[in-house]
Design a protein that fits this description.
The strands form eight sheets. Strands 4, 5, 6, 7, 8, 11, 12, 14, 17 and 18 form a ten-stranded mixed β-sheet that branches. This protein has a three-stranded antiparallel β-sheet with strand order 15-16-24. It has 28 helices and 26 strands. The protein is α/β, with parallel strands linked by helices. Helix content is 39%, strand content 15%. It folds into three domains: 325 residues, no CATH class; 211 residues, Anaerobic Ribonucleotide-triphosphate Reductase Large Chain (Alpha-Beta Barrel); 160 residues, no CATH class.
């Protein structure tokens, strides 16, 4: 490792440091003293093997941090050997380790105007991290303030030339980066093709052959010490003579996987036979030019060029080559596409070299042999109680975070000397955000709507504008980046392009108009200050996957992504788990104008079905607000592309995002996505068609062979049958007359001696009519099932919210509206025969209870019955099937308690919960650490159980 320090000559330029504004903190009060702390036990198991993979008891976190956040921080970020005094045991220690290192370096390198500014900076940074307002990328939490090399960057770009020394050095440098848990990308286009001659007269091997060696190296390093795959990106230019071989590498390997799987070999990801398959440790991307894309549109030939001379050595049909890219992506999701001319048109340092590659997740694009450290803001933290976006606070936090990120380069270590020099000379940063999907839903914007895209564009513009404004201010204090003088005009030109793109944004409501107004002012300041001071950073912003840090901030959604699903899997402190309807939904429904009981019914429908289709009372024009990445109303592929296009003009780098397509998608549809991505000005694009990859473990293991039974011993079969418990000859009954939508009927319910319901009869329609006969048959069927032990709550869950005529107003004060006769009947039965907690769990309350809730905030009749306590403090007993409890505040939100449900012990993640609702397996890999099914995050996957990612985190 090479330690790189900033030149002492680059200290205060004007004798003045940065003035720090107070944002969140209270004068004279330390941020730690403003929150309530509690001790928790973090025990993590691999649910498939039952093995305890981590245990640390008595760790300290704020009481508002979720179990998931505290578990991931404890397992991933606490330093020191377990069981020793050196082990960190509190979030305070972790935050102090990082923040105090930043403040010390900021003072040492002249960033602060006074010591008071440094102290305020320390407190504001601490408050923001403590309250999950933003997070640095994972390497900061791993390394800063420790005795290890203080690597702060998650993203690396390497370089390889056309020589054996350079190729072998590539293997070595990648190995060091993988060993540290990060990822790297590079472009192999300088390497001569297999169609060109060597100086000795022989034929060159070509880049694809050297990819095999790098792939094997990455697989060995991963299996030798890490639990996740090595993250790497391999790029090849579209005019390289070996481009067709490169395009087809992974698609052909998928054919091999299918053949071996069908022959009985274990070809699951992590399976014992998968290692025979090549090229599985990298993401591949083709770097396409405008010339090539125009040739595709026009149906013209396209020239493949020799690496040494640049002469055309072969002509191909551009459309045929484009079709091969699309077909390979259809077959196995590789290669992705990077748009070379668009990328370099927004390059601030063209005099120092072209941008040829990206990091593995495709959001960081800069010079060869460079790195970028990332940080992401939690957008939902800036949405105030009155549903307005806190624009001034957002801008101040961006400026604070950019200052901290730039300070980190002063003391950071880097894996190679070349990377260290480029990063210190150009100081590339990657500020971004998470929770965009949740913010859009909470504010009543559909992800695919014009309003949603306008809001996202305005926020992204303000993010980058505020970042470059602070970068120019810092340049006035400690100097611009070393490569700025050489690239000054190009850098200023890109700033003007950002400003012009901001001028093109068309706002649609007050929220995005206010944000856009601030962004316009910020870009004006960027231009003015940049002309005077230059800029401290060659790049400022990207949109990263935010997988692990997204969990640290308790985000509902990652990066630029929409919500994964409306129903989530949630772990509880003390053990147990539940499914919970995304708590953004009641807020969104309230924003859209729905009232208490309407919200309660819609949320209950979502809890039962996992989607909003046919939710009682929900207007169809509002469905789009609740569209998700998965499920019945999944966002369309072009919906993802257009959202990326709305944000891309305001980013220094690119966007880590995969465009998901259904299994039924065609090659032509993938071609349309790739073509539109180019036309809309994206820098990179990756697609994924459901179930296109064979080597994904979609089940929890293979069926075990049954032991051979001794032929002399017949197999004993124990058969369990339910026993019918008939009602006594004389039983208590209660008859209720009712009217639904003007149609009248009678409900007779008979009970056992202990008051338990055992029989019901429905009279509806004239005697002898078809309707009356159907009602009689239905009543008998339900009565017999009740006597065989089917719980009444099962029927209540199935038949409430069922919709058909007659429907409407009833004459029952406890059930004022009914969607159908069945909806009314089973709500009435629930009120008469189920206990309060079970009904509350289902969101069914009497008129008296609803009135009490309006007065006291609780449906319960007294303190002893009150369903109090936060979800995170509830320990669920699966053995007794005790219903989860919610706080009075949650109940009063209109969501009732229908947003909380017990989950099957076979479900361990939101992806598996989606499988339950969809009735089909989610196409996602299993986490190699804890066995949980992962879910998408940007262009990689993240585990909800332990925070592991399949990318560069």
């Amino acid at each position: 490792m090479t330690e790189t320090t900033n030149a002492r000559s680059r200290t205060r330029k004007s004798g003045k440091g940065v003035k720090v504004e107070r944002i969140f903190t209270t004068p004279g009060v330390h941020p730690y003293d403003e929150v309530t702390w509690e001790r928790r036990d973090v025990v993590q198991q691999n649910w498939k093997t039952g093995e305890t993979i981590f245990e640390q008891r008595g760790v300290e976190f704020p009481d508002f941090w979720s179990l998931n956040a505290s578990t991931i921080v404890t397992t991933k970020y606490f330093r020191g050997a377990l069981g020793t005094e050196a082990r960190e045991t509190s979030l305070k220690q972790l935050i102090d380790r990082v923040v105090l290192t930043y403040v010390k370096a900021g003072k040492e390198f002249g960033y602060f105007a006074t010591d008071d500014d440094a102290t305020l900076f320390e407190h504001e940074l601490t408050w923001s991290l403590l309250h999950q307002v933003f997070s640095f990328n994972s390497p900061v939490w791993f390394n800063v303030g420790t005795k290890s090399p203080q690597q702060v960057s998650a993203c690396f770009i390497l370089a390889v030339d056309d020589s054996m020394d350079s190729i072998l050095n590539w293997y070595k440098e990648e190995g060091f980066i993988f060993k540290g848990g990060s990822g790297a990308g590079l472009n192999l286009s300088r390497i001569r093709s297999s169609k060109e001659l060597l100086s000795s007269g022989g034929t060159a091997s070509g880049p694809v052959s050297f990819m095999r060696g790098a792939d094997a190296s990455a697989g060995t390093i991963k299996s030798g010490g890490a639990t996740r795959r090595a993250a790497k990106m391999v790029v090849l230019d579209v005019d390289h003579p070996d481009i067709e071989e490169f395009i087809e590498t992974k698609a052909r390997e998928e054919d091999k996987i299918r053949a071996l799987r069908d022959a009985g070999f274990d070809m699951d990801l992590g399976g014992k036979d998968i290692h025979s398959v090549q090229y599985q440790n990298a993401n591949n991307s083709v770097r396409v030019s405008d010339e090539f894309m125009r040739a595709v549109e026009d149906g013209k030939p396209f020239g493949l060029r020799a690496r040494g001379t640049g002469e055309v050595i072969e002509e191909v049909d551009a459309r045929e080559l484009f079709d091969k890219i699309n077909k390979a992506a259809w077959e196995c999701a590789d290669p992705g596409v990077q748009y070379d001319d668009t990328i370099n048109a927004w390059h601030t340092n063209p005099e120092s070299g072209r941008i040829t590659a990206s990091n593995p997740c495709s959001e960081y694009m800069s010079l060869d042999n460079s790195s970028c450290n990332l940080a992401s803001l939690n957008l939902l933290k800036f949405l105030k109680e009155d549903d307005t976006f806190d624009v001034p606070t957002f801008q101040k936090v961006v400026e604070m975070v950019i200052t901290a990120m730039d300070i980190s380069i002063c003391f950071a270590d880097f894996p190679t000397e070349a990377i260290g020099k480029t990063t210190v000379d150009y100081r590339q940063l990657g500020i971004g955000y998470a929770n965009l999907g949740a913010l859009l839903m909470a504010t009543g914007h559909g992800y695919e709507s014009e309003g949603g895209r306008s809001l996202a564009a305005a926020i992204t513009s303000l993010l980058t504008g505020a970042a470059y404004k602070r970068s120019a201010e810092i340049a006035g204090v400690v100097g611009s980046y070393a490569g700025y003088a050489r690239n000054a005009e190009a850098h200023r030109k890109v700033m003007r392009k950002h400003q012009a793109a901001n001028d093109q944004v068309r706002t649609l409501d007050t929220m995005d108009a206010n944000i856009h107004r601030a962004a316009t002012k910020a870009w004006a300041d960027v231009i003015e200050l940049g002309e005077k001071n230059g800029y401290r950073n060659a790049q400022a912003s990207v949109l990263a996957p935010t997988g692990t840090i997204g969990f640290m901030m308790d985000c509902d959604t990652t990066g630029i992504e929409p919500d994964f699903s409306l129903v989530k899997f949630k772990k509880l402190v003390g053990g147990g788990s539940m499914q919970i309807v995304n708590q953004t939904i009641p807020r969104a429904l309230k924003k859209l104008g729905y009232q208490g009981e309407q919200i309660e019914a819609i949320v209950e429908h979502i809890a039962n079905n996992g989607h909003v289709i046919d939710a009682p009372g929900l207007k169809t024009e509002h469905y789009e607000v609740f569209d998700c990445a998965m499920g019945e109303r999944a966002i369309s592929p072009m919906g993802h592309v257009r959202m990326m296009a709305a944000c891309q003009p305001f980013l220094s780098g690119a966007i880590s995002k995969t465009v998901n397509l259904p299994e039924t998608a065609t090659v032509e549809e993938i071609a349309e996505v790739h073509l539109e991505g180019w036309k809309l000005g994206l820098k990179a694009l990756a697609v994924y068609r459901d179930n296109c990859k064979v080597g994904q473990p979609l089940s929890d293991g293979k069926a075990k062979a049954k032991p051979v039974q001794d032929a002399a011993e017949p197999e004993k079969v124990v058969e369990y049958r339910p026993i019918r418990r008939r009602l006594p000859k004389r039983r208590s009954s209660q008859t209720t007359s009712f009217a639904v939508g003007g149609a009248e009927g009678y409900l007779t319910a008979s009970t056992y001696d202990n008051g338990e319901l055992g029989e019901l009869f429905l009279k509806f329609g004239k005697q002898g009519s078809t309707l009356a006969g159907v009602m009689d048959a239905f009543s008998i069927a339900v009565s017999v099932a009740l006597q065989y032990g089917v719980p009444l709550e099962t029927y209540v869950e199935k038949f409430t919210n069922m919709r058909f005529e007659p429907a409407g107003m009833t004459d029952d004060p406890d059930v004022r509206m009914a969607q159908s006769i069945m909806d009314y009947v089973f709500r009435r039965l629930a009120l008469d025969h189920l206990d309060f907690e079970t009904r509350s769990f289902m969101g069914i309350h009497s008129a008296e209870e609803r009135a009490r809730q309006l007065e006291t905030g609780s449906y319960a009749s007294n303190e002893g019955d009150d369903v109090e306590g936060e979800l995170e403090n509830f320990s669920q007993s699966a053995a007794t099937k005790e219903a989860p409890k919610v706080s009075a505040a949650q109940a009063s939100s209109g969501a009732g308690a229908a947003d909380v449900r017990e989950v099957s012990p076979e479900i361990h993640s939101s992806a598996e919960l989606m499988e339950k609702f969809q009735g089909k397996a989610a196409d996602a890999p299993m986490c190699m650490t804890c066995g949980t099914k992962m879910r998408p995050a940007g262009s990689c996957y993240v585990c909800e159980g332990c925070g592991s990612t399949s990318g560069c985190s």
